[in-house]
Design a protein that fits this description.
Elements: H1 2-17, H2 19-32, E1 36-43, E2 49-55, E3 61-62, E4 65-67, H3 74-86, E5 88-90, E6 95-101, E7 109-116, E8 119-121, E9 131-138, H4 148-158
Parallel strand pairs: 1-7
Antiparallel strand pairs: 1-4, 2-3, 2-9, 5-8, 6-7
């Protein structure tokens, strides 16, 4: 019986010896785990209309945008997404509205939102695999189905709303 106790004590002491290593590995994992970053645009025309897109894979109307790829700047990603989703090309420097934590997608997903007021647009692109529709809407008459995060960002940026840190 005494021998079994010694085996258990030895096992526990061996396990405790790995505790600092486990702690270190856990911290390393937390520090090196990838953070995701996206961009969205509040695109406003001269008639106080905002550009919204409807995706093929999720419901509702959204601000145009998407993910930032490795080696890509925020502004490069913004220009790419606006071109791909709406056939739009920003001119000049967009204004950064804010960076928001998207808790719906995890604790490490962030979205940078820019205001774009100077751009060229040749009209809406044809519907494709990702975007079903892209159109400008008067701010006073947004379409049914505008997502809550989109409404919050518009209120913050255009109506001097209180800026939340969360998407």
């Amino acid at each position: 019986m005494h021998e079994a106790h010694d085996d258990a004590a030895e096992h526990r002491s061996g396990w405790l010896a790995f505790r600092p290593l486990r702690w270190l590995l856990h911290r390393f994992f937390l520090l090196t785990r990838a953070m995701t970053l996206g961009v969205r645009a509040i695109v406003l025309d001269d008639e106080e209309q905002v550009l919204l897109v409807k995706h093929t894979y999720i419901s509702g109307w959204h601000l145009p945008g998407g993910g930032v790829e490795i080696g890509e700047t925020l502004l490069d990603a913004l220009a790419k997404e606006l071109r791909e989703e709406a056939g739009l090309m920003p001119i000049g420097l967009p204004r950064l509205h804010g960076v928001f934590l998207n808790r719906a997608l995890g604790r490490r997903d962030h979205v940078a939102v820019f205001v774009v007021e100077d751009f060229q647009w040749g009209g809406p692109p044809k519907p494709g695999r990702e975007i079903a529709e892209a159109a400008f809407f008067p701010l006073a008459r947004l379409p049914e189905g505008v997502t809550e995060p989109t409404r919050r960002r518009l209120a913050e940026a255009l109506e001097d709303g209180v800026v939340s840190p969360f998407w």
